[in-house]
DNA sequence: TTGTGTTTTATTGCCTCC
DNA sequence: GGAGGCAATAAAACACAA
């Protein structure tokens, strides 16, 4: 742990070092966290924002500007790599991809190549919550970063997935607030998460799950567990017949622009009741989106492409695998950030889905230039307790580690109930009531 | 322990917009 | 012309494998 004083001193050193020598000084975890959070909402901060941020973080405006600049470049670079990798993967593998992950699908393919998309458009989409490879990348980065932040002292648990058990269980506006409230005790010490969810299951993948990696299918496994005795590997019970799907049931618009790509049910999304569903923060919908996305990510890792960046990713996945074996109690904290970010984006996507793109997309760059973006509350920096953020070391990188491999009982219950709610909504819309029980 | 690769930070130059 | 952003580059910090 790093106490406040040392961080503040560090911040002072940042300024001083800039003046005195050119030796670069790493941002403190708290600074990075604040910056990341701010960046997550404002890719192009106004001068006022920068000033405020610089003041709050103890950095110079130049540093702030430079950081945002590099951060955008990083996003863009990663976006290129990611979309290109996805495109290659799609061509080389015969694995069916979820439609929700189709954004990567067409990245280097025929529909649209995001490498040639105006980055501001990318950003606008991200801001508006539309799913996008870059959004994943941001999430990946954030996970990587926060892992570094919290993953330093990972000796509290050897369970492989306790951190993930909370992925879908909670929704909070501010992941950082949530982190501190949920994981930090009154003394500011990280309290271990409940890890029993991993132990009590003893579930072994079977059938299709054997083929795919356990990591990828952990979410599927979780759903299986939730379904319990209702789950049948060989399909529905004999004698149970499903109603034929209505025409166009699987024909959700694949407009790469409007497609929210959250992997949720199209009927739900297009339903007038969508608002109710999204506010409900259905873990199942999130789960679906997550699972579909993870599939594409997993495939990338499985067949690394010979490019420097992909090589990094492959290496990262190894680290992740190793990391996931031993670091999970506090990793949950990392997951919370990534998850909340994604979830937030998903709900934005759902909320924004009904609006035309032209209306929804805001050119933040232009807006920032005009200084019309309201500076948010100074929560980015001030809400961060430096004492709660470990010193940064042990850079653990990865993407697929976000995969939930187990759920706590509470989470299972909640997820299960949410799944049922979604199914009920679907059935209500389709005017049938048999599928839930058929499951 | 060391070499190598990756990431992050800082600098600089060019470009675009007002 | 100034401001801001992007891209290229260098260098330091860091992680990891041998």
TrEMBL record:
UniProt key word Ligase: no
Main location: nucleus
InterPro entries recorded: HD, Homeodomain-like_sf
SUPFAM superfamilies for the chain: Homeodomain-like
DNA-binding region ranges: 20-79
Keywords, ordered alphabetically: DNA-binding, Homeobox, Nucleus
Record-given protein name: Homeobox domain-containing protein
Highest classification ranks of the organism: Eukaryota, Viridiplantae, Streptophyta, Embryophyta, Tracheophyta
């Amino acid at each position: 742990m790093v106490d406040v004083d040392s961080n503040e001193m560090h911040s002072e050193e940042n300024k001083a070092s800039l003046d005195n020598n050119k030796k670069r000084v790493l941002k403190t975890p708290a600074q990075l966290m604040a910056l990341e959070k701010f960046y997550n909402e404002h890719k192009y901060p106004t001068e006022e924002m920068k000033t405020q941020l610089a003041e709050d973080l103890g950095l110079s405006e130049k540093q702030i500007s430079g950081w945002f600049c590099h951060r955008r470049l990083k996003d863009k670079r990663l976006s290129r790599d990611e979309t290109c990798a996805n495109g290659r993967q799609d061509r080389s593998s015969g694995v069916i991809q979820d439609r929700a992950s189709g954004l990567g699908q067409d990245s280097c393919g025929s529909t649209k190549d995001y490498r040639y998309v105006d980055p501001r458009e990318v950003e606008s989409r991200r801001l508006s919550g539309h799913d996008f490879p870059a959004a994943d990348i941001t999430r990946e980065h954030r996970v990587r970063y926060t892992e570094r932040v919290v993953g330093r002292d990972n000796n509290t648990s050897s369970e492989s997935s306790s951190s993930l058990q909370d992925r879908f269980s909670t929704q909070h506006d501010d992941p950082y607030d949530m982190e501190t409230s949920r994981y930090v005790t009154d003394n500011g010490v990280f309290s271990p998460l409940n890890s029993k969810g991993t132990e009590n299951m003893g579930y072994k993948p079977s059938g299709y799950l054997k083929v795919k990696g356990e990591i990828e299918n952990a979410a599927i496994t979780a759903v299986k567990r939730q379904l319990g005795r209702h789950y049948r590997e060989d399909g529905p019970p004999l004698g149970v017949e499903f109603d034929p799907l209505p025409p166009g049931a699987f024909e959700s618009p694949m407009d790469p622009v409007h497609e929210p790509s959250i992997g949720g049910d199209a009927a739900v999304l297009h339903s007038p009741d969508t608002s109710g569903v999204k506010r409900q923060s259905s873990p199942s919908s999130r789960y679906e989106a997550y699972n579909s996305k993870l599939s594409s990510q997993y495939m990338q890792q499985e067949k690394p492409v010979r490019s420097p960046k992909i090589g990094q990713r492959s290496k990262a996945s190894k680290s992740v695998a190793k990391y996931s074996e031993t670091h999970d109690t506090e990793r949950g904290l990392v997951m919370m950030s990534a998850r909340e970010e994604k979830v937030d984006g998903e709900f934005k996507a759902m909320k924004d889905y009904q609006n035309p793109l032209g209306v929804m997309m805001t050119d933040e760059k232009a807006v920032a230039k005009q200084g019309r973006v309201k500076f948010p509350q100074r929560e980015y920096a001030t809400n961060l307790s430096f004492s709660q953020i470990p010193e940064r070391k042990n850079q653990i990188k990865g993407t697929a580690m976000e995969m939930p491999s187990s759920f706590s009982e509470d989470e299972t219950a909640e997820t299960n109930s949410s799944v049922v709610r979604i199914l009920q909504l679907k059935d209500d819309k389709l005017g049938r009531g048999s599928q839930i029980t058929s499951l």
